[in-house]
Amino acid sequence: DAKTTQPNSMESNEEEPVHLPCNHSTISGTDYIHWYLQLPSQGPEYVIHGLTSNVNNRMASLAIAEDRKSSTLILHRATLRDAAVYYCILSGGTSYGKLTFGQGTILTVHP
Amino acid sequence: DVKVTQSSRYLVKRTGEKVFLECVQDMDHENMFWYRQDPGLGLRLIYFSYDVKMKEKGDIPEGYSVSREKKERFSLILESASTNQTSMYLCASSFPLSTDGGEKLFFGSGTQLSVL
């Protein structure tokens, strides 16, 4: 399985934008990029996914590099509720939805 | 909203006991999963099921079995619980995002199992 690399932790101030990077240099042509977040004492929660084009939804934006070897999850205005672990995952094809979670990035948001 | 319900939030068992962890989803999803989460090791896939009575091993199936008699219910069984199975157990179900875009997973809140 193609792997992803994320920073262990990042910090942000409330109401500032947050850019969470993810490297996936061995991504295959059929892999979609998925992001999940996990709040303390909760199961992971889907955030966004994309293939080649940048994507926006009500939670976040996903910017995908032209060569697809990296991507960035963008939280436009961080709130204290955004403090969580963010996972960048590659998935697609006939994987039946099996996701391989790495360590993720711990995001701390300061008031 | 999709709901994935795990039967217990906290569970304490003795070494050697048979343990059942139950998971129910209410959205008619085909696929269901059991993960465990440990500090420093992240989430690891134990078993998954893509249809009733069908099951596939994940990355760490040893010491576990599963049962899927009905589409909405996926049970994880620890035949003889051991202390190294103390962990947070997370159940999930999924539906396709597109024909080849992978699946969107919905997780339950987890069961923290302590084996003494």
Characterization of this structure:
Chain A is mostly beta strands and 111 residues long. Chain A has no helices and 9 strands. Chain A is 0% helix and 45% strand. In chain A, strands 1-9-8-3-4 form a 5-stranded mixed β-sheet, with no helix packed on it. Chain A is globular and about 40 Å long. Chain B is an all-beta fold. In chain B, 0% of the residues lie in helices and 55% in strands. Chain B has strands spanning 4-6, 10-13, 19-21, 23-25, 31-38, 42-49, 56-57, 64-70, 73-78, 87-96, 103-107, 111-115. The interface between A and B is medium-sized, with 25 and 29 residues.
What can be said about this structure in brief?
With 111 residues, chain A is an all-beta fold. Chain A has strands at residues 9-13, 18-23, 32-38, 45-50, 55-56, 61-64, 70-75, 84-91, 105-110. By secondary structure, chain B is mostly beta strands.
List keywords for this structure.
heterodimer; A: 111 residues; mainly beta; five-stranded mixed β-sheet; four-stranded antiparallel β-sheet; 0% helix; 45% strand; globular; B: 116 residues; seven-stranded mixed β-sheet; three-stranded antiparallel β-sheet; 55% strand
Topology:
The complex is a heterodimer of chains A (111) and B (116).
Chain A: E1 9-13, E2 18-23, E3 32-38, E4 45-50, E5 55-56, E6 61-64, E7 70-75, E8 84-91, E9 105-110
Parallel strand pairs in A: 1-9
Antiparallel strand pairs in A: 2-7, 3-4, 3-8, 5-6, 6-7, 8-9
Chain B: E1 4-6, E2 10-13, E3 19-21, E4 23-25, E5 31-38, E6 42-49, E7 56-57, E8 64-70, E9 73-78, E10 87-96, E11 103-107, E12 111-115
Parallel strand pairs in B: 2-12
Antiparallel strand pairs in B: 1-4, 3-9, 5-6, 5-10, 6-7, 8-9, 10-11, 10-12
